[in-house]
Amino acid sequence: MSDTLLLLVLTLDATLRVAAPLVLVAMAGLFSERSGVVDIGLEGKMLAGAFAAAATAAVTGSAWLGLLVAVAVSAALALLHGLACITYRGNQVVSGVAVNILAAGLTVVLGIAWFDQGGQTPPLGQAARFAPIELPLADLLHDVPVIGHLYHELLSGHNLLVYVALASVPATWWVVYRTRFGLRLRAVGETPAAVDTAGVSVEWLRYRAVLITGALCGVAGAYLSTAQSAGFVRDMTAGKGYIALAALIFGKWRPVPAFLACLLFGFLDAVATRLQGVEIPGYGQAPVALIQALPYALTVVLLAGFIGKAVAPKAIGVPYVKER
């Protein structure tokens, strides 16, 4: 394999790893927002899931148990958001921000109280993490020119949650566009009164949507702390929930365009990582902070320049009041 092709394959490989949590959270937000519930709290639910997964895995030594607890904790926060927004018709943006603040503070407080390591969890051993998976025939095809290298280096060798993230895109598309639940979900985000008139509970539909959102955010959080990393560190989501929400909006609340937007950010982040330490002629090494900010800035510029107008579901952010 030539050096150029190898560099490209390794960059694309890193793209999938970086984009995996973004894809999961973007698909999570799609369910909530398609049902008419604004979810700024994606970041907080992912952060809480990351802490729950790492803390559980550190105590029990089981990554799978950590994943289950992460999903449960994130779903509980999603229900809290749903209770405030759906049942009590509170401001959805304020509720989402409150979830983010609660998760950011509580994960640090509990981390200090339980592990006394400055808000971090103890480093996880291999048994408490999701290990890379070698796909069938990956080793045999390794020496096959181009195709074998792509299969071995790019497609194989990821942990299970990366493949779950990739599978979540067609699964979300099928649920939203090919099932009765998806039809009702889209309808309740546009004209909830019509759904209510048809005898379908608007509240129950929205609660199911936010529960799915919470579950997927929990998986994304578990990926960060028990697959991509070997433990939890404070604020380890680093704005990924907001980036995923931006990707969802730029993707016009559709699964495939949102997925492509997440891949774009992942690619730019992977490129920025490889630019660190590179000498710029006449300047020297670029500042690390500038390189780290590059993917965020370029993502906004590129998507804002090419996406066009994004039209949200008509009933998004509007509490539904049943007519008597």
Describe the structure concisely.
With 324 residues, this protein is mainly α.
N-to-C SSE string, H for helix and E for strand:
HHHHHHHHHHHEEH
At the first level of CATH, the class is Mainly Alpha
Calculate the mean pLDDT score and round it: 87
Strand numbers in spatial order across the main sheet: 1-2
Largest sheet: 2 strands, antiparallel
Rg is 21 Å
Shape: globular
CATH architecture: Orthogonal Bundle
Kindly estimate the percentage of residues that lie in beta strands according to DSSP.
under 5%
- Please mark out the parts with pLDDT under 50 across 5 or more consecutive residues, or reply none: none
Q: Quickly count the domains.
A: 1
Number of strands: 2
Q: At the third CATH level, what is the topology name?
A: ABC transporter involved in vitamin B12 uptake, BtuC
